[in-house]
Amino acid sequence: MSMGRAVVLCVLWCTAAATQEAFVNSIPVPYPPRQDLYEFNWTVEHWETMFLYNKQREAGTPVIIDSLTGAYSKRTYNGSTKSCELADMTEEEIGQVTTADGYHRRTTLINKQFPGPTIIVWKGAQVAIHVTNKLIQEGVSIHWHGITQQNTPWMDGVGSVSQCPINPGEGFTYRFIASEGGTHWWHAHLGTFRTDGLYGALIVLEDDNSLEAPLPVFGEEFVMLVHDWQREDSQETYLRVEWEATRFSHGYGDINTCRTRLDQADGTDIGPVHFTSGLINGKGRSYDDNDNAENRFVPLEKFSVVGNKTYRFRVISAAMVFPFRVSVDQHELTLVATDGNMIREQRAESFIINTGERYDFYITTNQPAGNYWIRADTIELHEDGDAVTRQHHTEAILHYEEAPDVEPTSQRKSCTDDNDNCTVVNCPFRQYGDASIECLPVHELRSPVNQSVPIPESADRFEEHFINFHFAGSDKNPGQRSSVNGHRFVPPSSPPQVTGDEGLMPCTDELCGGEKYCDCSYHVTITPGNVVQMVLYNMGSGAGLAGTAHPVHIHGHHFYVLDMGFPEYESNGRYKSQNPDIDCGTSDRCNMKRWLDQAWEGGNKPGLNLLDPPQKDTVIVPVGGYVVVRFTADNPGWWFVHCHIEIHQVEGMAMMIREGTDGQMNPPPPGFPTCGEFDWSSEEFERAKKGYSSFWSHTLSVAAGGGIGAAVGFIVGLALGIICCTLVRP
Predict the structure, then answer these.
(1) Residue 421 pLDDT
(2) Is the CB of residue 494 less than 8 Å from the CB of residue 670?
(3) Whether the Cβ atoms of residue 20 and residue 202 lie closer than 8 Å to each other
(4) What are the C-alpha distances in Å from 213 to residues 208, 338, 348?
(5) What is the chain's percent helix, strand, coil content, to nearest 5?
(6) Measured between alpha carbons, how far is 27 from 25 in angstroms, rounded to an integer?
(7) Residue 717: predicted pLDDT
(8) In this structure, is the dihedral angle defined by the CA atoms of residues 538, 539, 544 and 546, taken in order, positive or negative?
(9) What does pTM read for this prediction?
(10) What is the pLDDT confidence band of residue 479, given thresholds at 50, 70 and 90?
(11) What's the sign of the alpha-carbon dihedral 97, 166, 227, 317?
């Protein structure tokens, strides 16, 4: 790293530490000094992309990037001519603009930063974030994705589960220990604010001697957040899914265009919305049907390097729906961590990252000095049944400082040479459709050292839960809705982590038993101290070719990925039928089923990796398949479990784990906010109209009727009575 760049990074880091307002895309090496406490002051507010903010006036004006010249202009009003005009902008003003994909769009941000502030702290430190909600009409909450919140379950940041939403005008302070090292992130966890821009990186630094395996000496570490971006509020996108109107998502009045269906390599659906543009660290471009940039002057993120050094990239997916295949032209990737957990070094041409996941890799800058594309491509192979010639994509630039500062013309590695196959890590299917591409599923990654995978001491200390993440419909409504074991999640009216189970909508046997579909606050109970094995599967109705692979996030734990089962495929890799290991029988919905071979019960399934499995907190569940994960129930609390595709989670593909009894859970601190429902009867209303305390109203009216003397006498007598009671109290 050059001396000038080191100074810039130091200034950025110091500024971030002082004001807590900055997004930074890199971490200086050596790391910043250790602190015991990190404090941040955040304001949640709406803002607009392609706007110039006037801090003094607390206002802004739209910005335009000329698609022919690249010139930036701000819109102004000329009072003399009574017309709107374009004015030139300074370099300082240009640097303040959040461009996204070059279009104007309302966002929800922290401190008007997109992405939000980068949190960089040391493992074991206390982290305090003071949040003020300046939105007009919406509550918010913020989740610290990757932090298990041992003994602080009410700091997990899930609105309606671990806390009440932070209402407009309110403040809330999050405090927790940065207990898990590695690459994590923070994001909104109420409604659809996350994909409106309310997210950022959370990097927990570790000493080299605390790592399970040594890493190379890095010239610098980079932070890279990828995101599929729409040009409308995420709530609008969600409502189209809820209303089954996504085919018309290009515009309800556009009678010539329908959303096309995008299929991945196994023929299954990628998601319910169209792709508009992708962003890397809040920057990207949109492309037309001929793959031409609609405005080639919209800036892209740039990572500057020098030759013959090694650089680490910490990649985080903040996507709404789409998985991305990440690669760097002409540079081999070496993966070293996933979801903050170290893995044995795995070389790859690329990896697939799903929303919620994190992957760390490094590259060596051993290519000729130049500029190279960093690619994040979507993974569809077909569009409405026809083969695609180019996936949707977004890019950043790897810039060698010795080279001219121009856009790359590089090409990605060709995967057609039989002697030089491409390895793609974390495929949600078994084969990519191209014999020269080797898929390496996530369960085939290995930890760098043997792991202490929990083994039950006795049969009664082991529990196994089968949980189906799929689409289901009721007998009355055939629409396929996001659900878990046939339950469409209804958020509690008050957070159970604060008020217990009083706010839950119950899942009764009458409404939800057996194969029934129902709406309720679905949860399973696990016992502290037990070894818990969960079989997350994706089968039954709403699976098959119409299904979608689901990235499932379990709060409160990092789990071992012991095995993964895929469906049966045709010879061309296309989905054929669901995996037979789970006994769906004749059941259409296949809820809460078990192993077909009963000898596999009790943790005895063959093929479980109990030696060196990877650890994660978010894992992809393939269509027609399953994933076996295991952890120890050592963190009492109410923990959210959900598909991390935001639309699916909001629609109802979620549940809770109740780990322990209320008495085993650490209670929230004094004064912790509560909330809930309120209802009252007509009779209660009539009593309220008359005044609830007839004694006080009668006494005061008598005193008032007796004049000032009577009133004074009443008050003096009341005071003396209180004093006497206090004196004689034992």
Answers:
(1) 77
(2) no
(3) no
(4) 9, 14, 19
(5) 15, 35, 50
(6) 7
(7) 55
(8) negative
(9) 0.91
(10) low
(11) positive
